[in-house]
Amino acid sequence: MNDPTSRSRSGGGVLELLRRFKDDFALADSYATSCLEKAKAAEPVLKAFEYLPRDLTRRPGPLSGIPVGIKDIIATSDMPTTNGSPIYRDHIPARDAWVVERLRNLGATIFGKTVSTEFAWRHPGPTTNPWSSKHTPGGSSSGSAAAVAAGIVPLALGTQTLGSVIRPAAFNGVVGLKPSFGAIPRSGVHPLSPSLDHVGFFARCVDDVAYALSLLAATSELDPHGRPVPRFDVDVKEGVAPLEKPRLRIVRFQKWSRVEPDQQKMFEAAAAKLRDAGAVVEEREWEELDATNWSTVNTILSSEAALIYSDLVENYPDRTSDHLKSAVKAGKALTAFDYLAARSLQEKLRAALTAEMSGVDAVLTVPAFGEAPEGLGSTGNAEYCAPWTLLGAPALSLPAGFGKNGLPLGIQIVGSYRQDLRLLRVAKWIEGALAFDPGMPKIAAG
Hints:
The chain has helices spanning 14-21, 25-46, 98-105, 142-149, 166-172, 206-216, 261-276, 287-315, 322-333, 336-356, 386-391, 420-434; strands at 49-51, 67-71, 109-114, 155-160, 175-178, 198-203, 247-250, 280-283, 362-365, 395-402, 408-414. It is an alpha/beta fold. The protein folds into two domains: 14-284 and 356-434, Alpha-Beta Complex (Amidase signature (AS) enzymes); 287-355.
């Protein structure tokens, strides 16, 4: 019998497991049990879960037997949803979030709740990086990224408002996908900034996040920001078809000088390898996006977060963090003109994306400034993720190397708005061309 707990980026992921489980239900059941055992063994150091599952009963469906970690700002009707806050410590929602209900209907096993920063903002939870417990796993989807990297679950849900899927995926050495804005309904997902919030995924290979998106992309009348992406299917045996020899545009931004030398070196080596494999690679900046995205995205986020959280901060001053209080204060200091001007610029930049992507299949850039920073007091810098979140463009983080501390480094691949399948096909080709497998971390306290 194949060992169901054996994993690499190319094997042991969602599609590989589904192929193994097809004619061996006992293997599927033993796999779920082994995941729970692994989670319990890792938790004293990893601290990736707020809540572990009690029911591992396998359900029929295209995701039957697949355990999925659920970020703890996403509502679950059968287990607590704390939103990373002591205010909601014992809160059990009346109903599942849309995406959780959909996963259940697809046969997935809802494998507990993964740690989130407070309301998906900056105040970290206890999760550590599985490659070194002295370093952050990133955030806000801290537990989801760490749980996939540690091999506890093959798939986990995250959310991104600035960089909360792409950055932790890079820090933990896994694949992270932030689909186009509006691709997955957010009903039942606690909001931070509705004009920026995305639902995304963590997995170990491009095929797995592609499969997840193919099953979960939809619209719902409960989410007014929903934007349908063109439907596509992913073959369980073959995965997505790679887009051979894609045309890639490198975007560095002016902040490139602050990127750590190891990250720069790895990125240049990856770009050279892609050129050698047949990709057409050009260098072309986007000055207006570079100059305006950070102030624009923070104006939108602070304004909307202030509206959502001002009463909470006022009513629970002893149970809300300084990070959340600062966001509310910053939002209240902004005028209606500031907010509307930022939203107008967001729409202008998003409309310009089509022209900026003319003649190329994807943008190639970095997901972060380097390795996961040491310490658990911060989740890292989101400045390389924020431009693409502001635009709502689909983005994917792919493991591509290690830094001087032995921690993962990634590259970020960005596509045209609502052209998620094309992005995934480009990413599949890049994954094959780089042929990089970070392997599995040995979780240890240090």
